Amino acid sequence: MTNPENEGVNLNKTAPANDLRIDPPHAPQVPPHQQDVPSWIDEATRPAAPRTPETQSQAYFNPRQPSGEATINPEPLRITQAGDISSRKLVAGLLAIFLGTLGAHKFYLGRTTPGLMMLLVNIGGWFLTGVLSIVTFGIGALVLVPLMTLVFTALCIVSIIEGVVYLTRSDEEFNQTYLVGRKDWF
Question: Domain TM2 spans what residues (predicted)?
Answer without folding.
Answer: 88-132
